Every structure is written in structure tokens, then in C-alpha cells.
Amino acid sequence: METPEQTWGSTRTPSSRPASQKSTRSTRSARSQQSITTTEQTPLLAREDWSDNGRPEEEEQTPATTSLLRSLSGSSAKSAKVPLWKKRWPSILALVLLCLVVVFIMFGFLASEGIEEYAMQAADFRPTRLALDGLTEHGANVHVEGDFTMDANRVKKQSVRNIGRFGTWIAREAESGPTEVDVYLPEYGNILIGTAKVPGVKVNIRNGHTTHVSFVATLQPGSPDGIRNVANDWIDGRLGQIRLKGMATVPLKSGLITIGKQIVEQSMLFQGGDIPTLPHYNITKLNLREAKHGHKGLGADASIVVTNDFPVQITLPSVAVDVGIKGCSADKHIMIGTAQTGQLDVKPKSDVKVDVTGNVEKLPDPLTQVCPDSTKSPLDAFLGDYMKGEDATIYINCCNFPDPATPAWARDLLKDITVPVPFAGKDMGNLIKNFSLADVHFSLPDPWAEPGTPEAAPKISAVVKVDIGLPNEMNFPLDVTQVKAVADIYYHKKKLGKLNLDKWQKAKSTRIEGHGNEGPSLLVQSDIKKAPIEILDDDLFSEVVQALLFGGKSVMMDLKAAVSVGVDTPMGKLAVRDIPAQGVVPVKPIRGGGDNDDKPGHGDHDGKEKLSAINLKIGNLSIVDTSPTSISLTAHVNLTNPTNYSATVPYFNINILVNGTHLGTATAKDIEVHPGNNTNILISAIWDPYTYGGSHGKEVGAELLSQYVSSFNTSLTLQAHNGSIPSVPSLGRLLSNFPITLPAPHMSTPKPPSDGDDPDQPEDDGKSHFIRDATMHLISSTAIFTLSSPFSSTTMFITSLNATSYYEGRPSGKILYELPFAVPPGLSETPRLPVEWSLGSVGYEAIRKALGGKLKLSAFAIVGVRIGEWRETIWFQGGQIGANVRL
To answer: pTM score, two decimals?
Structure first.
């Protein structure tokens, strides 16, 4: 801290002084009067080594007053960190006045012409004790102890040093009588801020001698309004500098010689680093609880340790203050509660422990109301800063004194002073200890919504369970009743998307007490409904989906959210908005919760096994329209959802492929899929191999139909595309990276009647068989076949038939038939079809021998098929056809 500038001063002899004394000091009086009348910047002492600009050429010189003020105000390196002015205003005022008192005394008894400059530099006063002995009706009694020494080595000029040593050796001692010192603020209308009554003091002024000084001074504050004005300017940061002016009439004598009364005036300027700040403190304990002893609301207990590096001993009475935070306007504060300390004993050079008890009965409405042109309330902003680890600010409105014995002047002096106090934030870190979703339901968007709008975003509904770690300081009931949040979701430190839950969702919470080193937590459960999910990185989302489908472990997501909660507290109901929260959220794989979940060795195949467990079955196949190249049909689908998630699908279109060739599409509208079995899901499909795949597609389609009706093992690939969800092309494009290949579903067809005793009846292999059985007539050389149509309401036609039957691989007969015939829904019989027997063949002989009985035949045929306008030629290969042989 720089030494406060000593701007001007003088010593004057009152008019009542005897003429002999006036004549002996005429020269100095004249110079003193000139100093007073000229300017306030005139130096206190006449110096021959002052430069033209009024500043001393040897600024390193330290006057006695400077040493004294440094000692009392803590100008050492250690004291600079915690200035003495940081104590309460009564003690601040007392210290300032005492400093001036001692300065004026030193000026008085050292103010002889010969040793004036010597005294200014050689005098050194080091306080050893400063104690408040008690408050009086009009002021305070302060006990001051210290050591006064004259040190000639501090004087720079040798001539001055020699004169000073000689003069003080002769004088030996100096003594002042009782003195009153008035201190003013020139820059604040010259208001009186205090008066000090100091008893007489005697000191040894010889070089190297130390005098222990001990006296009790009575301090009386001046204008309370003036002191408060200075305090408010300092608190608001408007106090760039402050000037103090002291005036006193000091009676002096040295030995038996009475010098008389000396009028002393002195000004000191404090600026820059000389002006103190709030003291350093540390909150060592904070406990938030329910209010006690019949009070309502929330109570708080805190312990604060304040550093005290000074030899100050003060007993402060109990103090109560109002506590507030910043409102919507920076110049308006909202008071939220009260705080009170007990009687405080301050020991010299000892840290001060302050125990504070607070209480908040009810939060005022302006505290929780959203500010104009903002989305936050004052409480939201305060908690947001605190939980991010940033310093929040509380405002202390001083002061009330519960002790009725506290003098009225202390109440008047400190009332209506508001002090901003930094409140160290606490970085909550990973508040979310666990996050899980149950009963998850995905909703795909309206297919015709405008892309990029909230209506075009997929939505999620689920039961969200969040285990939130609570600070140990929170020991009061807290019930979360509703939540909403906007969350950014990260995967591998890249931003994946955003969850926008901007509507209040009902919630309930349960407090779980901590065990061991674990603190308490709050388990919050909420049913969220249709929260939009915005995917910002399609490639990254593709990685996530792949990990969820085929991975064996939970996928870890980083969550950074602004959470708003509605809570019931001892202070009432309130909403706290945009509380920052972050954590790591595990998302379980998209599969059932079997015993092998998350076990090593099950990650690579479990997802594929679950996809194969879809168990897709198609029934009630109906043709709704045809064209020369296409068939439009509907069907009812039964499937198994192996995951724990459900979904609502307003519209979804998927391509049907065989070996990479596009043959058709399938569309689902307004369906609900839930975990487990799902039955009678209506879908529509278009089979058009030529339009989608050209001539190659037509060939692939005919081959697939041939294999399918022949009960071969066939498969279809289902693959999403950009138009799968028209409102979210990116989602369809993403899902196209995960084609699903499934066995071609077996269509449900009527079962033939059987009593189970026919050894020639084909075994039910679970497959669809187009030809169920046949009847051979040997005399008429004809055959009748029983056919099973896969359609429930559509009649198809066989336009041509070129078929050969076989017995154990040997031909037995051939059918060539060019007349069309109908195949109605369900089971039906063909007309009598002419047969050309392979006479003499092993196959024919087997048929002839089975006359009146039954045998198993196989067949291969080229069949022309027509359904409406659509025509196709396929081949058919059948085995295990039960044939009845008749005449």
C-alpha cells in the first residue's frame, strides 16, 4: 500500500498566547499562516529540497506520520492483503481518529523550528494493542497501546539529523495535555465525521529511546448521513479517493518549559491501493435445514473464518442483517431472508470465527417471476451462477441490533448500508448419478410435416428415472413436482442432437440418504410425453444406432442440459428455471433384458439374433389393384418385437429387395408397436419388379415367386430410404444403413382335414403348399388337383399349364392345358385336366398298382398366372403330393 499523500498542514499559536512566545516564533507563524491561506496543496513543513511541481525530490523519505499511519492501517505486505478498514464502521472510524490524534500529538511536541524536519522523519510509533473498551451513549472508549521511538537513522540529510539529535537530547521529553481532535471530509461538504478526546501523553524523544504509550481515548461519531454517503460510494466503487482533514488544539510542554497550545491542522489523501476492499473470508460450514423454534420456512447455519492480521481487540454486539440478491434491475435488490450473529470477540492477530444463523420464511413473488425480456427469474440467475461454480453475489443490508443496550448512535450510523458480498459458487460436477428410461415409446412424425419444423421431429415418451446427487449441505425436505428441460446430447464428445422438453411434465421425487462416503440423492421420476428429438449429426447417429442394435453394452451419452424444476420446499412452491446440469447417461442396447445382457461374448451376435426373432407372419392377403406390371395388395402382419421399446408409426415406407434388386415397397400407416407379440398389423405393398428393377428385376421377381410357391427357402431384404419418413429424410437415409434380411414369411392358408391316421398324408412342415393333393383317373386319363390360394378375397387364374408328374424321380404322366381356369380364395379344385400317361414307365406302373389307394408324387410345371391385369409365368416344383388313384 502506498503511503497516503500528506497534502497540507500547519501549526498555529492562538491569539491568547503571551507576547514573548509570539516573538520567539514569529518566523514560523508567518510561514504557517502563508501555508494556510495559499492552497491546500502547500506542504506541511517548509523544505528547501522541494521541486518546482510541488513534489518532494526524495519521495523515499518516510515521515513520522506516514510510519504511524502505516502501522495503524496495516501497510506491511501482509496487512495489505486485509486492510484494517475492512472491519465494521465504528472501529474504522475509531482507528482513523486515533491515528490523527497521535499524529497531532507528535506534531505538537516536536514542532520547534530547529527539529521540525527531523521529527517528521525520525518519529516511529508501532501499535501493540487496540481494544474497544466499551460503547457509551454517545460514542466508544478505545484503549490504545504502542511503542514510540525516535530513530535518527531514518533521517536522510546529515545536517537535519545532527540538529535533531542535539535538540532532542536537550529537550529529553515532550508532553501533551488533554486534546480534542475533529476530523472532516473536505470533499463531502466538509462534514464532521468524528471527534476524539485524548488524554495527555508523555514520551522520551531522545534518539534510540522507546516509550510505551497506553491511554484510553473517547470517540464520538459525527454526521451519520455523511458517513453513510462515504460508505455507499465506497461499496458502489465510486470512491476513487478520499481526503481527511483533522484539526486540534494541543497543549504542549517539555520538562518544566510550557510551550502553550498549538493549533494543528493536517490533511491526508487516500487513493488507489490505499482504499481497502472487503476482507478475505472462508465459509467453513454451511447447513440448510428446516427452520426451528417455531419459525417457518428454511433455516441456515454457517461458520465463517475472517482473517485478522492486526493487533486489534474488539467485542462486537450481536448483529442482525437482511439478506438479498440482485433483482431484474441491477440497482434493485430483493430481500429474501435474515441473518444474525452472536456477540463477537475479536482477538489481536487471530482469525475470527463468525457463527451465522439465517432464516427464510417465504420467498417473495418478484424473486421467482421471470424478468422482462428474459427467460429467467432472479432466483434462476443466482442459482445458475452458483451451480456453475461462479461467484454469485448476495447483498447484506445493515444493520439491526437485537441487544437493546446497543447505543442509538451505532444504530443510526449503520442503518441502510448495503454491502455486496461475493458468495463462492460450488461446481456441482456430475449431479446425475444414474439415468434410465422405461416404457419407452417412439413416435415418428407426421409424414407431411414441413422438414425442419418441430412437428417433423421424432418424439419420445418414456418414464424417466434420474438419480440426482445432492450437496451435503442440503438437509431440508425437497419435493420435485414437475420438470422440463432442453438438453444437448453428445456421443464421443461430438454433438449428436437435442432433446426439447419445453412443456412441464409431472414428476415425483424420493430422497435417499447417503451411506458411507456417498452423499444423499434425490430419485426423480417423470412420465414425459412426446418430447421432440432433433438429430444434428446423421453420421454420428448412425454409429449410435449400430451400437444399440448390435452392441452388447450400454451406449454412454454425455448430457448437458438446462433443467427447470417445480419444487415444494419449506418456503412454499417455486419454479427454478434453466439450472445447468451435466452428466453421463447410459442407454441400454435395443434388445430384451435377458440374463446375458452386457456379458462378454454376447455383443456381436445378440442384436442379429434379436432381429431374427421378429418372427414375421403374413395372413389375409388381399389384392386391391393391379396393372400389367404390378400388384397392389394389403395384408395383416403378425410379428414379435424383441426390444423393450414401443413405437407409434404414422407413416413408414420401406423398400423390398432380393439380392440387392429392388422389387417393391411396403407401407405402414397409423400403427402401434409394443414389446412382445403384435398381431393383425395392416400393411399395404406394391409388387412391381419391372418398374423398380427393369427387365432384370422382372426376372428376379419371377424366380422368387417360383421358389416361393414351390416352398423353397427364400428371403427378402427390407431397407429404408430417403422417403421412408417424408418429413425427416435424414432419418430414413440413416436407417437405410441398416437393411434387415428376413426369411420370406409363410402365408397362412387353410389346413386340409386329417384324422392323423393316413400314412400317405404329407407331414405339416409349416410351409405354404400351393398343391395340397390330387386325384388320378386312369380310364379317362384325367387328373383333378386341390389348390390352396394365398389370397383371402381375390380370385387368380391359371392361364396355361405344362406339368410333368414323377414317382421316385421317374416320369409318370404329363399335362398340357391352355385353357384358363379360376383359383378362388381358400381351397378349390381344378377342372379335369387331360393326362398323357407314360405307358410302360416305372412311374405309370406305380400309379396303376396304387389303384384304389394313394401314393406320393412329385411334379414340375411351367405355369401362366393372371391376377387382374397382371400376368406372369413361373415354374413350380412340388414334392410329397398325395395322389389318390381311381378308375
So the answer is: 0.53
